[in-house]
Amino acid sequence: MGGQVTQIMMSSHAGTYLDAPAHFIKGGETVGRLELDKFVGLAHVIDLSHKKPREEITPADLKDYQRKIRKGSRILLRTDWYKMAGHKSFFTDFPRVSLELPEWLAARRIALLGLESPSTNPDFKPTHKVLLGSGVILVEALVYLDKLKQDKVFFVAVPLKIRNGHGSPVRAFAIEKSTGGSRRK
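RE: above sequence
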């Protein structure tokens, strides 16, 4: 009996995925050329689960976290929106990144922004251009940030090495520090 093989055909933006700069920036870095350290390392989980459908996430929402949001930071915005997957409104009514927030984050030179929504904003071109144009990696459609007990985790979201790819599915997970070893989510 031979080994098993499964053929997989999907979009590069399926499931939990990341956007590389080439997704919106002409001549931007493609997935296969990105530095892996952007996807792996300490990340700050910011609880914005109080945000309502279609409500904007603004710089004012992150004011209390300014010390954590600096050059090289990985920021994960918890909205619990993943719970709406499968509903018609999942792709239209999610809490959205305001047009001002990408400029604010880009000025702080963060490495990665993770969201539980399928995109930054229904009008995603302006937000994507600012974030990706400043080298920020976007990880979208994250799940289970509400299961994390700590607001600082070791985060991994490594893409497939797709030559000339502008996005890639990722296997995202967080490891929490504990006295009894690591806990994976």
